[in-house]
Amino acid sequence: MKLTRIAAFVAAVVLAAAGPTKAADPQLIRIGVTAGPYADILRYAGELAAKQGIQLKIVEFTDYTVPNAALAQDDLDINNFQHQPYLDNQVAQRGYDIVPIAKSIIVPIGLYSNKVTKIEQIRDGATTAIPNDPSNGARALQLFEKAGLIKLKPGAGIKATVADIAENPKHLKFNELDAAQLPRSLNDLDFSAVNLNYALNAGLDPKKALILEDADSNWNLVFAVRAKNKDNPTLKKFVEIYRSPEVKQFVENKFNGTILTTW
Questions:
Q1: Which residues pair with 257 in a beta bridge?
Q2: What are the φ/ψ torsions at residue 95 (nearest 5 degrees)?
Q3: What is the C-alpha to C-alpha distance for residues 160 and 8, in angstroms, rounded to an integer?
Q4: Mean pLDDT, range 219-248, rounded to an integer
């Protein structure tokens, strides 16, 4: 599928800044990621990989739709920014021949507010927002349900939408916004669901979130590659380095339990 003009422009600018679009050296890995903690962890893993002869070229994106398009077009070798439901949705909608090869981390989505400090303080008729992409929207709604704010229709699961809200006792008014805009919405709304990378970039403190996902979350991130590269030895070696005790310790030390590892 072709990118939208805006996404194409973003991809072109970012990839041009990153350097050549082809990896001439088989030990060079071009990896796509969204800005924030994901990239911080990759930079550390890249330092470890360099000691084993693998050079990591990290390309950061601000638009969720671009990293898969860049991967499908061979502008990247691998990406690490999305959870499995999001990848499944992208493959179904856009026909990408992209597959996951390993789990990475759980980056909890949370409910944040500039107006209240506890779930119990949320007023009747409060305004709120969730991500407008299908998988993260469903993920946010599941967190609303876990917080006791709503009940979803049975079986809504990872495809839940606002239309699947069966009970809304506080008469919450939902807005659907681009994930990157959600931190700014806190100035106008009572509270919002915000993905952790955007929360950290905006200076929000995860420990002050009204509620965060925990280790039981099924929304772990994955390393994704073009299907023909699923057994590529260099990519597999890098993933092993990433999923090492050293990187696990780095994540625990740097993020103080707000980002969870899957190994």
A1: none
A2: 75, 20
A3: 29
A4: 97
Please answer whether residues 150 and 122 qualify as being in contact, where contact means their C-beta atoms are separated by less than 8 angstroms.
Answer: no
Query: Could you tell me the two tokens for 131?
Result: 């991500």
Tell me the per-residue pLDDT of 33-54, one tens digit each, with 9 for 90 and over: 988 888 999 999 999 999 999 9
| Whole-number Å distance between alpha carbons of 14 and 258 | 28
Looking at residue 9, what is its pLDDT?
38
Q: How far apart are CA 70 and CA 1, in angstroms?
A: 11
Residue type, position 45, single letter: A
If we measure between CA atoms, which residue out of 138, 133, 26, 10 comes closest to residue 69?
10
CA atoms lying within 13 Å on the CB side of residue 83? 20
pTM equals 0.74
How many helical (H) and strand (E) elements, i.e. helices and strands, does the chain have? Answer: 9, 14
Q: 94, 236 in Cβ contact below 8 A?
A: no
Q: What DSSP designation does 62 have?
A: S
CB 18 within 8 A of CB 30: yes
Q: Write out pLDDT tens, residues 198-232.
A: 998 899 999 999 999 987 788 899 999 999 999 99
